Amino acid sequence: MSRQNFFGIVVGTAMQKTVKVRVARQFVHPIVRKVITRHKKFLAHDEKEVCTLGDVVRIEACRPLSKRKSFTVAEIIRPARTWTDPMSGEIKR
Hints:
Radius of gyration: 16 Å
Number of strands: 7
Distance between the termini: 39 Å
Number of helices: 0
Strand order of the largest sheet: 1-2-3-5-4
Mean pLDDT: 94
Largest sheet: 5 strands, mixed, barrel
Strand content: over 45%
C-alpha cells in the first residue's frame, strides 16, 4: 500500500528539523461550477535541514513524530529561486 503524498511550497523554516509546507487543492464548486483553491499547512520532518523558503517539495506520510507532525520531506522538486545582490552581497528571493 502506497503512502499519502502531497506537493507543496515551504513557507516556514523557523523550527529545528521541521518545515511548514503549504499544500493547495482545487475542486469545482457543486452549485456555482467555479474552480476553488483551498490551502492547508502541514508540518513535515526535514532531517538534514536542507529546505529553504520557497522550495517546492513532496511530503510523504509517516508515523506521528509529534502532536502535529506526521509527514516527512521525501524530495525537493524545485529549489527556491534566489539571487545574490552584487552591491550588498546578501541573498534575495
